[in-house]
Amino acid sequence: MTTEAKQPPRHAAMDQFPVAGGELLVGGIPLTRLAARVGRTPFYAYDRRLLEARVDALRRALPSGIMLHYAMKANPMPALVAHMARLVDGIDVASAGELKIALDAGADPHHVSFAGPGKQAAELTQAVAAGILVNVESARELPLLAQASDALGVPARVAVRVNPDFELKSSGMKMGGGPKQFGVDAEEVPELLAGIGRAGLAFEGFHLFAGSQNLRAEAIVEAQRKSFELALRLAESAPAPVRFLNLGGGFGIPYFPGEERLDLGPIGDNLAALQAEAAARLPEAELVIELGRYLVGEAGIYVCRVLDRKLSRGHPFLVTDGGLHQHLAASGNFGQVLRKNYPVAIGNRMDDAARESASAVGPLCTPLDLLADRMTLAPAGPGDLVVVFQSGAYGASASPQAFLGHPPVTEVLV
Ligand SMILES: *Cc1c(COP(=O)(O)O)cnc(C)c1O
User: Fold this and answer.
1) What's the whole-model pTM score?
2) Across residues 54-61, what is the average pLDDT?
């Protein structure tokens, strides 16, 4: 029998950002000084050194030779994409708009790939002209790619995005298995491969993506192994050797109380085993993993300023100049079923010993505009800076910024 009181689950420590003089440091700059430099609140700040450290840590944990791609829909800020393009081996885009940012950022077109269920004819032509790899998700794309290739005199480089016959267990967002709008059902891939051969497209390989935001290494290991085995089976029907095998990603980061950081050890071991098997059975293939939030999410914060402190029936509400319109995910309205708090702190009162239960809300006229619901925070008032951690991915670009007519949020790479 235990006599310990049961503690409520806590957020993982946000110790990637150091604290000095009671203030959070971003890129080495105290938060109030950074806010003055930005000149306004709210803003998102992304820390270059943390981005570099993340890629370094991954490279150390994964076998060398595994190609690391950045899925830029997680954060398409041009300066950040340019920084990432220098750190990773390739960029994955999901529209012609993202393709432009990736190419402007200096990404090597040979290592850019394009996925998405509704690619437009013009986008496919742009992709062929750019010389990037298109992850085909429908037979409809084949004649469009063939036309573009003929018109431009450039081969259309293609891989097949497969909707696998399994799901990524315990993932936050399932993107494969069962009926899905993504990819081509595994059982129909042999026919599509024959079509690629007939259309004379340059077949390079397969793309499998089972789901995202997974914090369980064993589930990711299982999905990568099953993806690899499926690719081996499908390769038997391929019109050319497999040179590119994207096993997806799905690496999660801890957002909510009780969640812990992913253990990369088993994933690295498994990828090393798959690499050895690939050397024997798909000797021309390079193995790719594509990550979005895992690369950038923990390196970013959202910062807004307290405008008012209201006590309603004894409960303190910190009314801020930021909210749901700029950070939909932290408000709990971006794919969550039950709302939970992101890690939040008062960024200029990190050393205050006093604590109170308070809520941080935004200026919008909806009860959904909530950044922190009854969290234990340093007592704060007008002028203080509310920081939402884990905000480097699916922030500004994934929020309805026009909602209620407030100005767009600023983003800085520090
Ligand atoms: C969204 C997406 C990603 C990135 O997902 P994260 O959870 O941010 O890692 C990777 N690949 C594909 C195909 C995606 O659609």
Assistant:
1) 0.96
2) 98
